């Protein structure tokens, strides 16, 4: 009896399958229609330029030039290391690495310290947090110009230093002080990271501190063995995003270098003032692409930067297995 009903129901079941397939295809068309603005925008404004720069990096293409484009292979890449302008390339690499090694730890430690201060305050914590977060909302160019005014040799900071009898640096006009001045600017604008750290500090379980108190741990031991492991995922996130951002550091240095220059020097497109101390890797990409219109060289530099950031990110992700503690992990 069951076999007969199954046989009799077979044609009916098979008859419904084309209708079901047509319904699925109709729903897919609706999904694609809603996704089409993103797909088209991503393809035209992201995917196509990225693939185009990859091709350009292996050619001698120059934007705006009528010269015939020819394939040069890895010549653009090798010239970066051993070409006629290799010394300037290594200056850019050195300045960028200085910022990564110095600025990223400084901004992470400072944001953690400020976040800890906010969590320890009993009165006015919301006001203090808001005031410290406001610079993070300021446009980068406006913040750079504000620091140019404050750190001017005749500005308010040097006036204060003179009043208390301390030396008055030239700040952005001195090669020895130019990059530290950018670090100070970055410390002023770490409100986003500060908010994340303050939230992670408040999320540390109180039971862990109570257990540490029972074991007789002092303040430093509780911070080292309880607080840091508990917020290690946030520290990892802050350091990784800071490294990626600093490898691409451009806007602040470009604004400061251009505004600090005299009109005569700036008209000659000399970037990195003073004495190439603010000449970073992305500044070199800008110089090759928009000053000299060497699109092939600029594309090669951009792809080399992408590979470096990609490798560094992989190293960080591998290292987090040993350095980062996740409370929900079974490892």
Give an overview of the whole structure.
The protein is an all-alpha fold. The protein has helices spanning 2-56, 75-82, 86-120, 125-137, 140-150, 156-163, 175-188, 191-202, 206-214, 219-247, 251-260, 263-267, 281-291, 295-323. It is globular. The termini are far apart. 23% of the residues are buried. Mean pLDDT is 87; it is low at 1-9 and 263-269.
Describe the secondary structure blueprint for this structure.
Layout: H1 2-56, H2 75-82, H3 86-120, H4 125-137, H5 140-150, H6 156-163, H7 175-188, H8 191-202, H9 206-214, H10 219-247, H11 251-260, H12 263-267, H13 281-291, H14 295-323
Summarize this, please?
The protein is mostly helical and about 325 residues long.
Number of strands: 0
Radius of gyration: 28 Å
Shape: globular
Intertermini distance = 56 Å
Number of helices: 14
Order of helices and strands: HHHHHHHHHHHHHH
* Helix vs. strand class: mainly alpha
Helix content: over 70%
Mean pLDDT across the residues is 87
Task: Give the quaternary arrangement of the chains.
Answer: single chain
Report the sheet with the most strands, covering strand number, pairing sense and barrel closure: none
Query: Approximately how much beta-strand content do the residues carry?
Result: under 5%
Highlighted features:
331 residues, mainly alpha, 14 helices, 0% strand, globular
């Amino acid at each position: 009896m069951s076999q007969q009903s199954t046989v009799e129901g077979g044609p009916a079941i098979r008859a419904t399958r084309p209708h079901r397939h047509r319904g699925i295809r109709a729903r897919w068309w609706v999904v694609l229609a809603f996704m089409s603005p993103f797909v088209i925008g991503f393809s035209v404004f992201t995917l196509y330029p990225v693939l185009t720069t990859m091709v350009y990096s292996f050619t001698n293409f120059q934007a705006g030039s009528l010269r015939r484009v020819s394939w040069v292979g890895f010549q653009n890449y090798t010239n970066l290391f051993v070409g006629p302008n290799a010394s300037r390339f290594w200056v850019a690499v050195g300045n960028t690495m200085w910022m990564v090694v110095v600025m990223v730890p400084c901004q992470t430690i400072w944001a953690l310290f400020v976040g800890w201060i906010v969590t320890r305050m009993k009165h006015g914590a919301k006001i203090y947090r808001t005031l410290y977060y406001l610079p993070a909302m300021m446009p980068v160019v406006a913040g750079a110009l504000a620091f140019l005014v404050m750190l001017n040799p005749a500005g308010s900071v040097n006036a204060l230093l003179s009043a208390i009898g301390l030396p008055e640096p030239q700040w952005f006009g001195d090669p020895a002080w130019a990059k530290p001045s950018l670090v100070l600017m970055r410390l002023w604008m770490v409100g986003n990271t500060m908010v994340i750290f303050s939230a992670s500090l408040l999320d540390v379980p109180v039971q862990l501190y109570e257990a540490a108190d029972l074991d007789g741990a002092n303040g430093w031991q509780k911070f080292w063995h309880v607080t840091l492991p508990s917020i290690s995922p946030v520290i990892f996130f802050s350091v990784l995003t800071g490294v990626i951002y600093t490898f691409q550091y451009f806007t602040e240095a470009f604004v400061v270098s251009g505004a600090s220059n005299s009109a005569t020097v700036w008209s000659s497109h000399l970037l990195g003032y003073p004495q190439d101390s603010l000449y970073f890797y992305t500044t070199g990409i800008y110089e090759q692409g928009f000053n000299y219109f060497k699109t092939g060289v600029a594309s090669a530099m951009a792809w080399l930067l992408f590979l470096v950031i990609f490798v560094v990110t992989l190293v960080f992700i591998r290292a987090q297995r040993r350095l980062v503690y996740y409370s929900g992990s079974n490892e």
